[in-house]
Amino acid sequence: DVKVTQSSRYLVKRTGEKVFLECVQDMDHENMFWYRQDPGLGLRLIYFSYDVKMKEKGDIPEGYSVSREKKERFSLILESASTNQTSMYLCASSTSDRVSYNSPLHFGNGTRLTVT
Amino acid sequence: AQKITQTQPGMFVQEKEAVTLDCTYDTSDPSYGLFWYKQPSSGEMIFLIYQGSYDQQNATEGRYSLNFQKARKSANLVISASQLGDSAMYFCAMREGFFGNEKLTFGTGTRLTIIP
Questions:
Q1: B43–A88 CB contact, under 8 Å
Q2: What are A10's strand-pairing partners?
Q3: Is the pLDDT of residue B2 over 90?
Q4: B45, B105, B110: which to substitute to probe chain A, counting the most A Cβ within 10 Å?
Q5: Are strands B74-79 and B105-106 parallel, antiparallel or unpaired?
Q6: Is residue A23 within a helix (H) or strand (E), and if so which, with residue range?
Q7: What is the pLDDT of residue B98?
Q8: What is the pLDDT of residues B20-68, one digit of tens each?
Q9: C-alpha dist (Å) from residue B68 to B17, B27, B52
Q10: Antiparallel, parallel or unpaired: β B110-115 and B10-14
C-alpha cells in the first residue's frame, strides 16, 4: 500500500512566522502535490512537482513556496503565515508510469493549520 | 467557469437506500479521466472509482458505480444499499489529458449523511 505521511496532524502558528509542512511518500512516485481544503471550496491545488527539483504553480500559489530536494519528500513553505492561510493542507503523490492515466492520487491524512 | 461542479452541498439518505451524487464537468480535451473520492470525518481521502473518457462501459467497484453520460458531461456516483459507514464528504475530480498532466481538479464536494 502507498503511504503518504504528513509530519503534523495539527499545527498552530502565529501571524508572520515561517511555516514548513513536510510530506514523505514511500512508493517512489514521481509526482507530488500540495492542496488546501476549505469548506465550500473543495480542494485547490497550490503547487505540484513532477520530479526532484522541479515545481510548477497550481491554482493558488500566492503566499506559498515548495521544495523537493529528494524524490520522496515534498515540503510546503509559508514564508510569512497569515490568518487567511488557516486551512487543511493535503499532500498527495502519484506515479507517471506508462499506464498511469487512470492512477489516482494517494493522499496523506492532512495537516490542519491554524494561524493566529 | 468551474471545471467540476457538484451541486449538492449536503444529502440525507435512509440506510439501505441507493444514493446518487451528482457531478458535471467541463473540458474541451477529448481525453480525460474522472475520479471519485470519499473523505470520512477522520480526514483521509479514499479513492473510490475511475472512469476514462473512452471507456465504453460505466465503471463499477463493489457497491459503487459511475453513471457516465458523456454527451451531458456528467459522471454521477451511485452507491447501492447505503450503510452508516458511507456518511462522509464525497469529491468528484477530473484529470484532463492522459499523459503529461497528472494533476486533478476537484469539485466542492457533497456531504452525505446516512440516517439509521
A1: yes
A2: A112
A3: no
A4: B45
A5: unpaired
A6: strand A19-25
A7: 67
A8: 999 999 999 998 999 999 999 999 999 999 999 999 999 999 999 999 9
A9: 21, 15, 9
A10: parallel
